[in-house]
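Aim 2 progress update. The chain analyzed this quarter is reproduced below.
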Amino acid sequence: MKEKILHPVSGFWVIALIAICIAGGIYGAANEYVAVSVILFVIAATLCTSISVVQPNKSVVVTFFGKYVGTIASSGLFAVIPFSIRKTVSLRVRNFNSVKLKVNDVEGNPIEIAAVIVFKVINSAKALFDVDKYMAFVEIQSETALRHVASKYPYDNFTESGMSLRANADEIAKELAVELQERLSISGVEVIEARLTHLAYSTEIASTMLQRQQASAILSARQIIVEGAVGMVDMAIRQLKENGVVELDEERKAAMINNLMVAIVSERGASPVINAGSLY
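Predicted structure tokens:
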């Protein structure tokens, strides 16, 4: 459906004409010009059906005997075809908050997800004639798109490669907005923004996945600690050798490395032992 913008006559001129017809009808009735009076009253009543008021940031779609005439997109008082049907469509920006949907991510884990969709109508004719109840259409298509996007990615990516719902919220929101626009363009709706408002594992696996996240965090932290400890031990051995503090054979070097690694990596404070004799 292609929208056609109407530029109707100002309603104030028609109101003035209605007033003239009513005054003429009253004058004719007073002077026994009954036929003229009846005709003027009928004209005034007919013109009254053409008056239409359009509020700011709204549009009025005009149909006449089942035929689409056009859309009044500007606000004000206008006169259109008498006895035509006018339907008002809001052009204001609106929000749609989806319910918490339970879906499976790409790995099959059940998750809960919800989003807020910011949209507005940009084609009133499509919104009224191409879909049945465009608001319900927006709600259903929004939830369908959200389910589809959520099923394409894992909730969390433990391999640190690729996108995930939790770590790439902005990218997921942009993809959701693009898919929504494709689905809703038929209804004359423009998607302004789409954002995730809720994301969590489903209750039946929440505790298990929390343990997995904690284990992954511990392993990552341990890896950083070990890498740092190896660098510190290497630096200590090299400085001892360069400064000529002590000459270490392979056995003594291994013992020192072992002691340094234990002292650095251990979660508890090291308890030094003073060796007063020989290593052998």
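The CA atoms of residues 96 and 117 lie 5 Å apart. The radius of gyration is 38 Å. These observations will guide the mutagenesis experiments scheduled for the next reporting period.
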